[in-house]
Amino acid sequence: MPNQRLRDALLRNTLGFDEVAKATGVDPKTVERWITQDRTPYPRHRHAIAAMVRETETYLWPDAVAPEKKKEINESEVVQVYAHRHAVPQEIWGHLIEQSKISISILVYAGMFMVDNPALIKTLRQKAESGVKIRLLLGDPASREVARRSEEEGIGKTTLGAKIRNALAVYKPLAEVSGVEIRVHGTTLYNSIYRFDDEMLVNTHVHGFMAAHAPVLHLRRLSGGDLFETYAESFQGVWDGAKPPKW
């Protein structure tokens, strides 16, 4: 079976066999076998390719890393654990947004604490204009999932939907900015995800608690790790099933 993940990653980055061969010091035919025959490269070659296509080794070669090594890497991906989202220092949020060079991806229901920052829209616009890809994914205010979450938080059936509409109104000026995409989703949200290039804040959701009072994981992506990649794939799954908002 061919390694479709590796093939797609090279295509996305417009990399051919010759370029990969030159970067890894092997023959182009070897690179072709890595794809068409799903041969597993040596670790040094995996590191080089993963860096070139900005994917993890675990994603490109799920069975290549030994379990004990993978456990060590996964533990190292955790930078910090915060007992509550409100305990994350404000400067962390600002630093992560500011240092982003490639992409910013946000998955929430409302995320009102972010739009409370009056400089957020201006900052995101500047980031997009500098080439950063921005994806904003909010809850569908008319969905059953949002209404249920609102009731579970004890704030009434319609309150969370109203918050989402307020957040969308704040984000609306970004809708026409090149490089910014805004969608809404109707999924059961198990975690809010805030990704800034290869760093991520994951706000876990706890039944009966508002998101601000639930824990947050600060993750940093490492080649060969599973933890960061798990949440990245979760975001992509929700994004793929989402739709443009009704302004």
UniProtKB/TrEMBL annotation:
A Pfam family assignment: DUF5919
InterPro entries (alphabetical): DUF5919, Lambda_DNA-bd_dom_sf
Cite the DUF5919 domain residue spans from the record: 122-244
Protein known as: DUF5919 domain-containing protein
Organism annotation = Lentzea sokolovensis
